[in-house]
UniProtKB/TrEMBL annotation:
It is found in: Cytoplasm. The keyword Ligase applies. It catalyses: cytidine(34) in tRNA(Ile2) + L-lysine + ATP = lysidine(34) in tRNA(Ile2) + AMP + diphosphate + H(+). This is tRNA(Ile)-lysidine synthase.
Length: 441
């Protein structure tokens, strides 16, 4: 780790970032990273650097850690942002702290910013062993990625090629000060037991294990890349959005085309698709069940709940909907002709001047389907809203969210797409147009 040049090479992807954030716990690894980056900055132009420390409120000494980070940052003229979080009670403290920490990081990163974390080769090894012990797929076998998207920016782990011992040697040589988190020595924490008991034993009996495992992670990383490329091609072929502008707003897949793929390719594609939508991936078993349920040969329109979402089959497609389904809209008053954000995360109504609807005086409001509504479109007999939706192919799951425009309690337009004949602007009357953009919040 005398190799500052090596760290600089790792930083290459983020040289044009508006800002670099450094996740500073105050422990050995992140202190080494802070020191390396601030040393490099003296000779090489780097983006503006800020440090971020998350105070988890777990350990009685946590305030002292904040002071340590403040002191070390001040000595290097680095701005430090400290976030305090409160962890929910119950559950695995390590996991809760990590989730809270990454949520803070995500929220802090501005567009194009990079976050530097000080994970090293031993962390990678521990992660791999953990995953092997708990059971993992090929994706998990690749270990922690060197870089990945995070919020509006990306995270980078520039120290992954150095071992903990190398970082410690360098820290001592540079006379760095760091704090020791007692949790790192507490055998109740699974990671500590792995680090201090299992790994030394494995190293003693299988000295080549660390290198072999890291090599395996490299192979798995390449295999994943191939799987992703295959999935991207499949998605290109069968993930074309439906022509209907409302339906095109929801991620969906064509069921028939999906069924034409081999089971392994179906699962690979589903995994990739869900990951692209930012959802946590179901494991192999759940994925299999999901596909089985969705492919069942009936028209029951099954819905399968996954973590943070709902996969729903209808009208020959698989739709990815919010966890609670598409929200039923809520009534709201409306100034006719003005664009408005709809309540209940129901997207936007965008208005433009000069459209087909007459801008008449009256009490306007936006409402939603209760059942029994009727409308008479130009040149057509009166029909039920249900019938209109059915003939236009608007699936049942979307209907409760479609905004209905009322003037003096008369239904004048269905989301700006279909209008009552009586609501059309006559010659000489001011008209306006409406478009519903059902983009969920
Ligand atoms: N409290 C904290 N505040 C800011 N950054 C932190 C904090 N704790 C950890 N980090 C950053 O995250 C890096 C990894 O920390 P740690 O090894 O505790 O892993 P972790 O995030 O739990 O990792 P894993 O994803 O391997 O479980 C640290 O080197 C540091 O850069």
């Amino acid at each position: 780790m005398s190799d500052l040049q090596g760290v600089l090479e790792q930083l290459a992807p983020c040289m044009d970032a508006p800002a670099l954030w450094l996740g500073l716990s105050g422990g050995l690894d992140s202190m080494v990273l802070l020191h390396a980056v601030t040393e490099l900055r003296r000779h090489s132009p780097l983006p503006p650097l800020k440090a971020i420390h998350v105070h988890h409120g777990i350990h009685p000494d946590a305030d002292r850690w904040v002071e340590h980070c403040q002191r070390e940052c001040a000595a290097r003229q680095v701005d430090l942002v400290v976030h305090r979080v409160t962890l929910p009670s119950g559950g695995n403290v390590e996991e809760l702290a990590r989730d809270a920490r990454y949520a803070v990081f995500e929220q802090q990163l501005g567009a194009g910013d990079w976050l530097l974390l000080a994970h090293h080769a031993d962390d990678q090894l521990e992660t791999l062993l953990f995953r092997l012990m708990r059971g993992t797929g090929v994706r998990g076998l690749a270990g922690m990625p060197r870089s990945r998207a995070l919020g509006q920016g990306r995270l980078l782990r520039p120290l992954l090629d150095w071992t903990r011992a190398q970082l410690a040697d360098w820290a001592r040589a540079q006379e760095l000060a760091w704090i020791e988190d007692p949790a790192n020595a507490d055998p109740r924490y699974a990671r500590t037991a792995l680090r201090h008991q299992l790994l030394p034993y494995l190293r003693q009996h299988w000295p080549a294990l660390p290198d072999n495992l890291l090599r395996l992670a490299g192979h798995a990383g390449e295999a994943n890349q191939l799987l992703d490329e295959r999935a991207a091609e499949d998605l290109q072929a069968l993930g074309q959005p439906p022509a209907d502008p409302w339906l095109a707003c929801w991620p969906s897949l064509d069921m028939q085309a999906l069924g034409g793929l081999s089971p392994a390719r179906q699962k690979n594609l589903l995994r990739y698709w869900l990951h692209q939508q930012g959802l946590r991936l179901p494991d192999q078993r759940h994925l299999h069940t999901l596909l089985e349920q969705l492919a069942a040969a009936d028209d029951s329109q099954p819905r399968v709940r996954i973590h943070q979402g709902l996969v729903h089959r209808s009208s020959g497609r698989l739709w990815l909907l919010p966890e609670q389904g598409v929200p039923a809209g809520q009534n709201q008053p409306w100034e006719a002709g003005s664009s408005v954000k709809l309540t209940a995360g129901n997207g936007w109504l965008r208005c433009s001047a000069g459209g087909p609807l007459a801008l008449r005086a009256g009490q306007w409001r936006i409402g939603y389907r209760q059942g029994g509504e009727e409308i008479r479109l130009p040149g057509r007999p009166t029909q039920s809203l249900k019938n209109l939706f059915q003939s236009a192919g608007i699936p049942a799951w979307l209907r409760p969210a479609v905004p209905l425009l009322y003037c003096d309690e008369r239904l004048v337009s269905v989301a700006g797409r279909w209008h009552a004949e009586s609501a059309l602007a006559d010659a000489g009357e001011t008209g306006f147009g409406v478009i519903w953009e059902p983009i969920p919040d």
